């Protein structure tokens, strides 16, 4: 795959970074990253916690890891409904409690950072990094701490009561406010349509990753400004935007 050109013919490099629909007028100082499917491969631990919680509510065959992974990044209630389990309020409360207890206990048992994540965060340490995730705040902080990634991020924006989740821009805007950053100087990096739509709604440049839980076919209609195939490609992309 050949490199791409961005504003004034700046060459990004040899592979895996593709330009989208915009050019850059101001340098990027802040990078906001989704968590699951972007920074960490958490599909198995999420699937096991999901199955554990569902087993306390329904009988019969449970959805497998592959089916569950297709919905990671959505609120748990939406995941259950789209997998064919419309839960009553009482069931949903039980489901959340069971999921939370299982996930917090085993959130890093199988989960690992994607290849190149730690090295890339080191390489771009002069920038400000934040996390924006649909995970509950406690869960996000716990898994990042257990994977020894916390120190790379100046802010972790998980879900807290009253905060509208992606694709609404609220969580992205909350992270920007905490980091004292203007939208025009920030980049949102994520693997699902919710990440790209939230970033766009908040006024950020957006970068889709193709190695996570969302497919390129799903991401392309959202018109991300950039597409990368590995997290390591973020180094070339950011340098080209300086």
Account of the protein in words:
Helix content is 38%, strand content 17%. The longest helix has 18 residues. It is of the alpha/beta class. A seven-stranded mixed β-sheet has the order 3-11-10-9-4-7-8, sandwiched between helices. It has a two-stranded antiparallel ribbon with strand order 1-2. α1 packs across α4. It has two domains: 165 residues, Rossmann fold (3-Layer(aba) Sandwich), CATH 3.40.50; 64 residues, DNA polymerase, domain 1, CATH 1.10.150.
Q: What class, by secondary structure content? A: alpha/beta
Sheet bearing the most strands, described? 7 strands, mixed
The counted number of beta strands is 11
Strand content: 15-25%
Using the alpha-carbon principal axes, give the shape: globular
Q: In CATH, what is the class of the largest domain?
A: Alpha Beta
| Estimated radius of gyration | 18 Å
Q: Give the strand order of the largest sheet, numbering strands 1, 2, ... along the chain.
A: 3-11-10-9-4-7-8
- Element-by-element helix/strand order: EEEEEHHHHEHEHEHEHEHEH
């Amino acid at each position: 795959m050949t490199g791409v050109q961005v504003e004034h013919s700046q060459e990004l490099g040899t592979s895996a970074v593709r330009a989208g629909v915009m050019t850059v007028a101001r340098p990027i100082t802040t990078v906001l990253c989704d968590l699951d499917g972007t920074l960490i491969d958490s599909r198995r631990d999420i699937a096991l916690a999901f199955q554990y919680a569902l087993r306390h509510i329904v009988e019969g065959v449970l959805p497998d890891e592959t089916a569950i992974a297709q919905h990671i990044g959505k609120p748990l209630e939406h995941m259950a409904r789209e997998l064919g389990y419309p839960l009553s309020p009482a069931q949903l409360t039980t489901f959340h409690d069971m999921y939370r207890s299982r996930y917090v206990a085993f959130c890093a048992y199988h989960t690992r950072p994607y290849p190149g994540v730690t090295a890339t965060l080191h390489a771009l340490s002069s920038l400000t990094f934040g996390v924006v995730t649909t995970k509950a705040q406690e869960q996000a902080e716990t898994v990042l701490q257990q994977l020894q990634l916390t120190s790379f991020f100046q802010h972790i924006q998980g879900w807290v009561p009253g905060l509208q989740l992606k694709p609404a821009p609220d969580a992205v805007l909350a992270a920007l406010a905490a980091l004292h950053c203007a939208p025009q100087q920030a980049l949102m990096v994520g693997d699902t349509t919710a990440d790209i739509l939230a970033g766009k709604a908040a006024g950020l440049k957006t970068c889709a990753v193709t190695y996570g839980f969302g497919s390129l076919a799903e991401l392309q209609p959202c018109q991300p400004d950039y597409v990368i195939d590995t997290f390591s490609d973020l180094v070339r992309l950011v340098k080209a935007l300086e």
